[in-house]
């Protein structure tokens, strides 16, 4: 394949400003264990919006290529990069999704066995496009898979759109629920937030066998999908605006005890204080959606008096990407994953797509780059 010298990419040079489509250099040589891919599709994540708006509480080295949920077709293979991270052979033309790069030799990688917390982690979308390997974001014609980045081959039966969904949103859900531990058949579960992560989590909880799943969110079209994904009850924050009324409804739906498990995917800081109010004594509270610099006031004594376990979950490692792909492959006939993909845009329409996502007009829009 004839590889060009430059890749068209959507670049953030200043927060809150429209992105520009720029020509970004493509590395002339591929390092050992690295890959060069032609990106087919890249979905927009809520984190993309937070970065664009300057609301992420993470280190960002502008200018950056936005986007980190992408699927690509291999166009160049570095030495010793002919197998993916689970042992499957790779060849030119294969589709892959890939993870951030973990060093494998720091305290968190080796002792804690938690590569998502790697001290030396290199993360896509946060590194400048002005330094090698340049192509560190998803809204680009080409992408670079770092030598230390895990990568997984996409099954033939999984579409490009759903594969991109697995490369951040679904892997975050898989990682979170792995950290949560066993979901018992007697567990009542509340999912706070009916964005992509919350909706995907509902399907996993349904397969896990939760007794009752209650989804809290909005707008109406997302709540309808929540029901299709397996929610037994829904509470609309558009209709039930009063926090105390929502708490009352949750308690009524759980025999006055509260849910055994609460999963926060809303991204709204105030949801945490609300969840602490209605969670069952001795319950587990899994918090995933809080990556902004927002703040809220909580009553810490509730954690002690109710003997609550609070679990934070950040990102996911390559095993979670693999689990996400396998879940979609196995259950795509049961759950309407495709309904989360609400629209497709071209790379040149990136600002329109981002604005619509920011204004909650989309659930999971796709940037179709080479699909």
Structure explained in plain terms:
This protein is α/β, with parallel strands linked by helices and 371 residues long. The chain has 2 domains: 6-167 and 336-368, Alpha-Beta Complex (Quinone Oxidoreductase, Chain A, domain 1); 173-312, Rossmann fold (3-Layer(aba) Sandwich). It contains 11 helices and 16 strands. The strands form 3 sheets. Strands 3, 5, 6, 7, 8, 15 and 16 form a 7-stranded mixed β-sheet that branches. It has a 6-stranded parallel β-sheet with strand order 11-10-9-12-13-14, sandwiched between helices. A 3-stranded antiparallel β-sheet has the order 2-1-4, with no helix packed on it. Helix 4 (169-180) packs across helix 5, helix 4 (169-180) crosses helix 10 and helix 7 (243-253) packs parallel to helix 8 (270-278). The two termini are 17 Å apart. The mean pLDDT is 97.
List the helices and strands and how they pair.
Blueprint: E1 6-12, E2 20-25, E3 35-43, H1 46-53, E4 64-65, E5 69-77, E6 95-101, H2 107-110, E7 142-145, E8 149-153, H3 160-166, H4 169-180, E9 188-192, H5 196-208, E10 212-217, H6 220-229, E11 233-236, H7 243-253, E12 261-264, H8 270-278, E13 284-287, H9 301-305, E14 309-312, H10 318-331, E15 341-345, H11 350-358, E16 364-368
Parallel strand pairs: 9-10, 9-12, 10-11, 12-13, 13-14, 15-16
Antiparallel strand pairs: 1-2, 1-4, 3-5, 3-7, 3-16, 5-6, 6-8
Helix pairs in contact: 4-5, 4-10, 5-6, 7-8
């Amino acid at each position: 394949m004839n590889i060009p010298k430059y890749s068209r990419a959507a670049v953030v040079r200043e927060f809150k400003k429209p992105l520009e489509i720029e020509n970004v250099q493509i590395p002339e040589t591929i390092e050992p264990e690295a890959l060069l891919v032609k990106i087919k599709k890249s979905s927009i994540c809520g984190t993309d919006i937070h970065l664009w708006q300057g609301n992420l509480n993470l280190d960002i080295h502008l200018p950056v290529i936005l986007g980190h949920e992408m699927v690509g077709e291999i166009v160049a293979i570095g030495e010793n990069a002919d197998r993916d991270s689970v042992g499957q052979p790779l060849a030119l033309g294969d589709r892959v999704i890939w993870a951030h790069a973990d060093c494998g030799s720091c305290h968190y990688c080796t002792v804690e066995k938690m590569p998502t917390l790697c001290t030396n982690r290199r993360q896509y979308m946060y590194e400048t496009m002005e330094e090698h390997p340049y192509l560190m974001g998803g809204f680009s014609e080409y992408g670079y898979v770092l030598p230390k980045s895990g990568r997984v081959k996409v099954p033939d039966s999984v579409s490009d759109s759903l594969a991109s969904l697995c490369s951040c949103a679904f892997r975050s859900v898989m990682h979170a629920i792995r950290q949560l531990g066993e979901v018992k058949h007697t567990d009542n579960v509340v999912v706070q937030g009916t964005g992509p992560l919350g909706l995907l989590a509902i399907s996993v909880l349904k397969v896990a066998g939760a007794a009752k799943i209650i989804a809290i969110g909005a707008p109406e079209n997302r709540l309808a999908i929540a029901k299709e994904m397996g929610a037994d009850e829904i509470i609309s924050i558009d209709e039930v605006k009063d926090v105390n009324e929502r708490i009352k409804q949750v308690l009524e739906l759980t025999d006055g005890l509260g849910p055994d498990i609460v999963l926060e995917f809303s991204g709204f800081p105030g949801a945490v204080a609300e969840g602490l109010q209605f969670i069952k004594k001795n319950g587990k509270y899994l918090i995933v959606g809080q990556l902004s610099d927002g703040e809220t006031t909580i009553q810490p004594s509730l954690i002690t008096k109710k003997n609550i376990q609070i679990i934070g979950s950040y990102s996911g490692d390559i095993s979670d990407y693999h689990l996400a792909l396998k879940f979609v492959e196995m259950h795509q006939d049961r759950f309407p994953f495709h309904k989360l993909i609400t629209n497709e845009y071209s790379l040149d329409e990136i600002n329109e797509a981002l604005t619509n996502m920011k204004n909650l007009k989309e659930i999971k829009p796709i940037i179709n780059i080479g699909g």
